[in-house]
Amino acid sequence: MRLWLAALAAVLGCATALADTPAPAELAFVSEHAVEGMRGGNLSGLALCDGELWTVSDRDDDRAYSLRPDETPGSVWQAKAELFSAPGLPDSGLSWGERVRTWGMSLLRGGALDLEGISCDRAGNRYLVSEAYAGVLRLPQTGEPEWLPLPKSLLRQARASGLLMVNNAYYEGIAIDPDGKRLWLAAERQRRGLLRLRNDNGTWKCDGACVMFNEGGTAMPPAALNSDKPWPLDFADLSLYQGKLFTLERLLHQICRRDADSGAVERCWSFAAGALTPERRYPLPYGVAEALVIDDKGAWIGLDNGDTPRANGDLRPYVLRFAAPAEGWLGGQ
């Protein structure tokens, strides 16, 4: 009972904090970089691992890609694939019917695992989140890939909070601390939320309540997208920086700094001005930003445009670079 009460208090506190947050300042756009060499396109996650960017595609089940971050304006990045073989499917608690629907969708779309995020620890292990099967695949430096044995209570508590109720709207982002001891997952939409786990001597457990934050609701996207209706609030990715959790919020075209223990929003920054210039715009009402890395110098934001070309007809994935705020990511209130 105490866990449920703590979770409820966290939700109410976060809702109040969000309402009191001032309008986000605009991040300065620095550069954009087309990405070539991703077999399936659909860049859907980013992680900075020992100075190298890594990404995944939600259409590729057997590879992660390394990227050399060249900040020369307009430089094209070449993705280098690292192949792996996932060991079957995770036992995350999804029903037989849900797994069958997911399998059927993969036949039409491609990408059975629907990899939507990537993170890494200082030991060089990479962690890939599967939206389709609500699992986390660990790619070790040496040895075979393995699905993390997530606790069954994770899915139960998520659904008791209204999360993970909509097919193709499960986990959309992942972050792990440098020690590999704490793991965060982002539930995408309808409702959106943040979940937290800890590694207790090789056993993954909920860190207090599984759900640390959740909320529903809709909002209008930026005016440049010319939407005639509101869309569900969402999370598209996570990045952990200096002990703070940063959420990529695709619909609102913003990055928010949040408390890593409660999920309470502390400050937000908009990237709409740089991302929605006429030549960078896509004819989609909710945005295409799906991947986030925060570092000392700024933010890398990866775009998953699916099969939709941007205004100039370009179908390649892109990574955008934005400068850090003048006061730094941890400055200000």
Automatic annotation (TrEMBL):
Domain annotation Phytase-like: ranges: 41-191
Alphabetized Pfam families for the sequence: Phytase-like
Stretch forming the signal peptide: 1-19
UniProt key word Ubl conjugation: no
InterPro entries: Phytase-like_dom (IPR027372)
Record-annotated membrane-spanning stretches: none
This protein's UniProt keywords: Signal
Lineage: superkingdom: Bacteria
Protein name: Phytase-like domain-containing protein
Annotated organism of origin: Pseudomonas knackmussii (strain DSM 6978 / CCUG 54928 / LMG 23759 / B13)
Top-level taxonomy: Bacteria, Pseudomonadati, Pseudomonadota, Gammaproteobacteria, Pseudomonadales
